[in-house]
Amino acid sequence: MNEFVGAIDQGTTSTRFMIFDHDARVVASHQLEHRQIFPNPGWVEHDPWEIVERTGEVMRGALSAAGLGPEDLAAVGLANQRETTVIWDRATGFPLTNAIVWQDIRSDRIAAELARGPNGELVRRKTGLPPATYFSAGKLQWALENIDAVSQAARAGTACFGTIDSWLIWNLTGGAGAGKHVTDVTNASRTMLMDLRTLSWDDELLAIFGIPREMLPQICPSSGQYGETIIEGTGRAPVPLTAVLGDQHAAMVGQVCFRPGEVKNTYGTGNFLLSNTGGEIVASKNGLLTTLCYQSAGAPPVYALEGSIAVTGAAVQWLRDQLGIIGAAAEIEGLAGSVEDSGGVYFVPAFSGLFAPYWRADARGSVVGLTRASTKAHLARATLEAICYQTRDVVLAMEQDVGASPEVLKVDGGVTANSLCMQLQADILGRPVSRPVVAETTALGAAYAAGCAVGYWAGEEELRQNWRAGETWEPRWSDDQRQAGYTGWKKAVERSLDWVDVN
Predict the structure, then answer these.
(1) How far does Cα 471 stand from its chain's mean position?
(2) Which of 79, 303, 350, 397: disulfide with 363, CB 3.0–4.6 Å?
């Protein structure tokens, strides 16, 4: 009884449920993709119901694979894609529109006007975030102004807003009439509506975006009591929900980055590099975000600096789904490894503009340096190099903000299974790259936070003992080769700018 902890990892392209034992070993895992909906150029949506259905399916699948029932789980934690905006009706429980995904740029004019106006600096000071399409507030403002069902429900007082965590918790704890409308500090910190210092929704920010307070969920610590869920099809035993974190914050916990200065980089649909700054709110001067790291119930918040990169693993999916260059994501390693270098080709995957450290909504994807000798193998290798060059951009910005950088870059996420990409990362960055035994640290972090809330694990020091290095890549490039490659990358980035007008 209660020998394991489960974790829902709800990501941009898929949902996974993982079950861990006390030594942080993976007992079972089940994962399913969901549709990516592109109704207009630059728009990205998800079906909220599909995500709820996939969550139930993966929970049942993992328990079945392990021969376990819900009574065997001490607790369940949730990690989720951040900033993605869900709006539903409190009375019916039905979504009022598709989820507007964090990559979506339909709110570009809202962000541009805010950045130019007097309120841009207020937003930065209170939230630690620059005005950008990335965050939830602009998406919610756009929906209120452009979707009749949303504006009507808001006027009637029945509209609920939340990021994916709020939507899932609402449904996992009973839905219409019973569901809890809550979020945690990490997800709230990504909306542009929460004051970093008070950890509460801010009236000035709500007024800027025209958002009614009654739409918003209650803000809670990341680790604590969120309620109970019944996993349909597995009996009636309730399972405690005791942790909620945005996926990148969960990965910080999974990588046991509990001390100021500890850094991790997660490679998924995008890349997200975070550095723990402890109890200090550090304002970036180099294009990074100030954000919550995590908060345990009854404890003060821990903050972080973050470099967010919109498109990394998604660029590999683009080669697969849009160009048909590869049939599966894993094939890129062999294709890219069939050539010695990219042949002078650079790929800047600015499909949604450029995030950190540039924050340029006017940028668009570009491939430069093509010659008649260029092949799909060169483009594949340039795609992997783009992942690594964007990470170097963020590491350099973090060095300038905090005056130091990690001697070894701790990495996790699906792309880290690509050994060639990790070797290129070490080469381009000029320092070792280390992947833990459990590379899916987002799920592990959610499990850790949930388990600590019910006493399954004693605390941070016990979790630190569980961390084990899996593989380390040492840099092989010379300093001259590294600098020449990065100089070419910066030229390629310049070519991607000013491609669209953002008024």
Answers:
(1) 23
(2) 350
CA distance 42 to 311: 13
Which three-class secondary structure state does DSSP give residue 161? strand
Quick: pLDDT tens for 52-80.
Answer: 999 999 999 999 999 998 889 999 999 99
Q: Any alpha helices (H) in 327-375, and if so which ranges? A: 331-336
The secondary structure of 52-96, three-state, reads: HHHHHHHHHHHHHHHCCCHHHEEEEEEEECCCCEEEEECCCCCEC
The 8-class DSSP code of residue 288 comes to P
Cβ within 8 Å of residue 151, ≥6 positions away: 144, 145
Residue 491 has φ and ψ, to the nearest 5°, of -65, -40
Asked whether the CA dihedral 374, 376, 381, 384 is positive or negative, the reply is: positive
Q: How far apart are CA 452 and CA 500, in angstroms?
A: 48
Spatial separation of the C-alpha atoms in residues 68 and 49, rounded to whole Å: 26
Q: Comparing C-alpha atoms, which of 114, 398, 404, 134 is closest to residue 284?
A: 398
Tell me the pLDDT tens digit for each residue of 28-58: 999 999 999 999 988 999 999 999 999 999 9
- Is residue 503 pLDDT above 70, yes or no? no
Give pTM, 2 decimals.
0.84
Q: What is the pLDDT of residues 444-468, one digit of tens each?
A: 999 999 999 999 998 888 888 887 7
CA 425 to chain centre: 20
| pLDDT, tens only, 201-221 | 999 999 999 999 999 999 999
Distance of CA 474 to the CA centre of its chain: 27
Res. 502: pLDDT tops 80: no
- Number of Cβ within 10 Å of residue 236's Cβ equals 9
DSSP-derived secondary structure letter, 353: B
